[in-house]
Amino acid sequence: MTALWAILGMAGALSLLRLSGFLLADIAVPESWTHALTFVPIATLTALIVSSIAARPDQSAIRVLAAIGAAIVVWRTRRMWLCIVAGMGFYWLLRII
Predict the structure, then answer these.
(1) Per-residue pLDDT tens digits for 15-31
(2) Could you list the residue range(s) of the whole structural domain that residue 48 is in?
(3) How many whole angstroms from its chain centre is CA 1?
(4) Cβ of 92: how many Cβ atoms within 10 Å?
């Protein structure tokens, strides 16, 4: 029964968050907030990558090498889908070796 209350609480909080977006749509956001919010996507992506690399200490070297390989691919091609495919390819290739 506790899980049900947790799920209902999260659903309620999410509904309130979405409703606040509609209610506050006409309010102007300060320029400093807009500038600060531009860093949210890269900070989120960095947090996901770092936590993924640190998740399994026995595979850290393989994951770091695959991430470096994927970074080189995206740097050279500027195509995100190719970065994902190359990163997964590097990861699986390095696990086999």
Answers:
(1) 999 999 899 888 998 99
(2) 39-97
(3) 32
(4) 12
Tell me: do 51 and 81 sit in the same domain: yes
What number of other Cβ atoms are within 10 A of residue 65's Cβ?
14
Residue with tokens 């999410």: 14
- At position 40, the amino acid (one-letter code) is V
User: What token pair was written down for 19?
Assistant: 């409703």
Owner of token pair 């960095």 = 46
Say if residue 66 is in the same domain as residue 88. yes
pLDDT digits (tens, 9 = 90+) for 45-60: 899 989 988 888 889 8
Residues 43 and 82 in one domain: yes
Q: What count of other Cβ atoms lies within 10 Å of the Cβ of residue 62? A: 18
Q: Domain total for the chain?
A: 2
Distance CA 71, CA 65 (A): 10
